[in-house]
What does this fold into?
Amino acid sequence: MDALNSMNEIAKGNQTITLKLGRSIIQPEMGIVEIRGILKTICNRLGFPELDIIKILTAASEITRNIHDPTSNGTVIYEIAEEKGNKGLKLTFNNTGGAVPALDEKLSKKHRSREDSGSPLSGAKKLVDMFFINPMGEQGTAITVMKWLNSNIVLSDDLIEQLRLDIAQISDKSTIETLKTQNREILELLDELRQKYQQLEESNTQLTKVNEQLEILNVELEKRTEALKVAHEQMMRQEKLAAIGKLAGSVGHELRNPLGVITNSIYYLGLKFPVTDEKVKKHLKIIQDESAKANKIISELLDFARSKPDKLVSIELCQLIKDSLEQIQKPENITLNLCFEQDMPCIKVDPRKMLQVFQNIITNAYQAMPDGGTLSIQARNDAGEIEVGFKDTGIGIPPENLSRLFEPLFSTKIKGVGLGLSIAKEIVEQYKGTIEIESEVDVGSTVIVKLPCNV
Ligand SMILES: Nc1ncnc2c1ncn2[C@@H]1O[C@H](COP(=O)(O)OP(=O)(O)OP(=O)(O)O)[C@@H](O)[C@H]1O
Ligand SMILES: [Mg+2]
It folds into this structure.
């Protein structure tokens, strides 16, 4: 270290001066080439013979090749120094990228340089007059070499100034070149990025388009699935209704006669043995009432089974609703609330069938309000479609039953058959209309029937 420090200064007369010429950066690319250029210029100015110049350049090349990591920077310091009474060109190579791997090996004769094309460091050592290594561990390694100057060279201030200028100019040029190269690379990179961005944008646009098409297809698919579901439900309902109709027809017919016999016999017994006992009287009345009810159910089933051909009549629906209401006994605790739009258009239907639709709906509403309530019926003409709403304040329908209401034989009532709504739907759809139910438990239900006027 002492030897190195002393070399930074030159004795000039009694004074000690330092002749630092300059410094340049070794870059991963082009570094050695630039340094060789600088060295060639200053060696020529210092009057080194041709052979010495070649030796200095070769040593510099070998040292930079051996101590510098090709991916990191380093420096070269150019100085004129005096050592052991000799003045010489002093070059200090510093690498900043940590310790030089296998330094000892590189100093041995056996080692080949990284590119396997030059001599090892030991070869460079022979080309110069002095050679020092200062390994600084993780901070890097410094290699200093000296080549003695021709004894008759005059180190004038002008010459020193000129040398400094040479180093500065070439280094500056090299820095500008490097910056230009880096700039060019950045621009190329930017261009590549721009292209990639454009490609991504295009892919994105295509993806958005595909996505939109998929969404359209999905909506279409959902519509078709829904239509299929409706068609399937309708088919199932019709098949079930047809089977029930057939069964009801034959069973109803067979039951009608025995029922008639029961009713007649009761009547006969009443005439023959006038009853005074209240309890017996009450039970005879029960038999009579229930027989009459059974007879009514059978009549309805037979009606349904026979499905007589339509007798189409042009009629005002509101009148039919009023007729339906008249034919069903309204419980006293229920209030009726009618709101019919004026001058409703007539529609062509079989009045018996539409009566049955309204009666089934009204009966359900009454049955849903065992403790009383209000049934509001509204009818209006909605752009060529008649809309009738039956709104009750009854028990409501639990959500899980909503989808099953129109299934034949679905009933939650002890004495219910479960045909009222499925028959109503069948008839309404026959006239190209719709029937829907909205409901909330403990609040009430609303049945909405819509029928086009031009059927
Ligand atoms: N207004 C309503 N409020 C509450 N529940 C209703 C109403 N209308 C229909 N329902 C429910 O729908 C089911 C099916 O009704 P639907 O009229 O088809 O059969 P039902 O009334 O049970 O028997 P029926 O064949 O004698 O009419 C009913 O059992 C009932 O649970
Ligand atoms: Mg019913």
Observations:
- The CA atoms of residues 282 and 317 lie 42 Å apart.
- Confidence is low (pLDDT under 50) at residues 1-16, 111-119.
- The longest strand covers residues 74-83.
